[in-house]
Design brief:
2 domains; 13% strand
Length: 485
């Protein structure tokens, strides 16, 4: 039996949805992209041109929910399936778009460089419990106009896993799409085997920017999945109550569903978000707050009610260093996400309100992910009945260490974590050097970087990726890309 947790009953889900639809029909949503406004208008939405405000009808919402796919899959650079976003299947991916990296040597946050990003890709590529990459941090040694495409370029050049990414400009989409076509070989293959998910973020309250709404349309055209990342802040840019925040999140996300499905019926998408319970004491947006996690799990239930696969920024921490707070918040988040069945769990590696990545934290979080993946499998009998033969063997042998039943089921029944989870007794731990979690995690980072094996993507494809990136960089006056070796 798979263990589950629910925060909402069916009646409350339906009431939240009804209220959200009333918001969209009566208050509407501001859209700053004329093509999107025209699209909605052509399908019957009312438009107030003076305010760029669109009033979305119940019929439009019902129509687009019918075409929204209930599942989709992601594939690595070789075309092998890695992520199945269906039912309550869960997958972990690192948090993305951090401005800083936690430097192990100084224990201080600093701006990341190209080398840091490459090291990140090399590490993530070898973490068994993290299914996909993300464009996790923004290298500071390239022109900011190419930072979106540059991160995807490095991810595809050095990693094999699919990538959760996105762009802050309309122009960047073209080269990022072309990079994916270079790897897949054709638009048809890219649609058949998606390689990335693009994050598309409405602005709270109830607004879609020119760039983000265009991204939704562009992604749908090429079959590139999107994840809607609504970010209402309870008590600041959303009602203070969790239920009120859920009403706003539902309205903002449903408006994205309508844009996506009207432009490209059947376009794959994740019902996601990154809301937070605003902390009025410090004027911060704590991702590690239990209320934030409750909102995440609850809107996941609403997404499941619509039969749309889900995403959440959860399993991350607001701590500034790799400390007890980091483990506490990340562990609780991962556990709640797994029990809720959130399909794409974004967060491992992140600190400081989504602004910092830590490679050492990724190592530790990989073990948290492994434990929660085991938790999600639940408990089920495996040749346990009748039990009498096992207990006869136990009494006869004095142990079951090498019994046939033990050898057959040990690996699948017990998750055995890596070195950062220390299960040695005190004497053995002392004899082995009394190493700390941070020290072991850093040693593992160094080991993974040193043992990294390049992908076997063809040289022709790699050269095409380099040419695309160099050409894009020159548009913005950067004649040379940073050294990568």
């Amino acid at each position: 039996m798979r263990p589950i947790i629910n925060f909402l009953n069916k009646s409350l889900i339906e009431q939240i949805i009804a209220e959200a639809i009333t918001i969209l029909t009566e208050l509407g949503v501001e859209i700053q992209n004329k093509a999107v406004i025209d699209l909605l208008s052509s399908h019957g939405a009312q438009v107030d041109s003076s305010k760029s405000r669109v009033y979305i009808t119940q019929d439009l919402i019902d129509k687009t929910l019918k075409t929204a796919p209930s599942a989709f899959k992601l594939f690595d650079i070789y075309g092998q399936e890695t992520n199945d976003f269906s039912g309550s299947k869960i997958h972990f991916t690192p948090g993305s778009a951090a401005l800083y990296i936690l430097d192990y040597e100084t224990n201080r946050s600093r701006k990341p460089l190209t080398k840091d990003y490459i090291d990140f890709v090399k590490v993530v590529d070898q973490l068994n419990n993290i299914a996909s990459q993300s464009t996790a941090m923004i290298p500071s040694d390239v022109n900011e106009q190419i930072s979106d495409s540059y991160r995807l370029f490095l991810s595809l050049l050095y990693g094999k896993k699919p990538v959760v990414t996105g762009t802050f400009t309309i122009d960047s989409f073209e080269v990022m799409k072309n990079m994916q076509l270079a790897v897949r070989g054709s638009a048809e293959q890219l649609k058949e085997k998606p390689l990335t998910v693009f994050s598309c973020c409405p602005t709270s309250p109830l607004k879609w920017s020119d760039v983000t709404s265009q991204n939704v349309i562009d992604c749908g055209k090429y079959g590139i999945p999107v994840e809607f990342i609504a970010m209402p802040l309870s008590g600041f840019m959303a009602p203070v109550t969790l239920t009120g925040t859920l009403v706003q999140h539902t309205a903002e996300t449903l408006s994205g569903v309508v844009i996506s499905q009207l432009s490209s019926p059947g376009a794959p998408m994740l019902y996601g978000g990154s809301p937070a319970a605003f902390d009025i004491r410090y004027e911060t947006t704590p991702m590690g707050a239990i209320e934030t996690m409750m909102i995440d799990c609850a809107y996941n239930e609403i997404g499941k009610y619509f039969s749309i696969p889900t995403q959440a920024y959860i399993s991350l921490s607001d701590a500034k260093h790799l400390d007890s707070q980091a483990g506490l918040e990340s562990g609780i988040g991962a556990t709640l996400a797994a029990l809720s069945g959130i399909n794409n769990i974004s967060g491992p590696g992140m600190l400081d309100f989504e602004s910092c990545q830590s490679l050492e934290k990724l190592i530790i979080d990989n073990e948290i992910c492994g434990m929660t993946l085991r938790l999600a499998k639940g408990i089920e009998p495996k040749e346990d009945f009748p039990s009498l033969p096992h207990f006869k063997e136990l009494l006869q042998e004095g142990h079951l260490l090498i019994s046939e039943h033990t050898l057959k089921y040990l690996d699948s029944e017990h998750y055995l974590p890596g070195k950062v989870i220390n299960r040695a007794n005190l004497a053995r731990w002392q004899a082995e050097g009394e190493t700390t979690v941070n020290e072991i995690a850093h040693a593992e980072v160094e080991s993974l970087i040193n043992t990294y094996q390049p992908t076997t993507l063809s040289e022709d494809v790699k050269n095409e990726l380099v040419q695309l990136m160099e050409s894009e960089a020159k548009k913005y006056g950067q004649d040379r890309l940073p050294k990568r070796d």
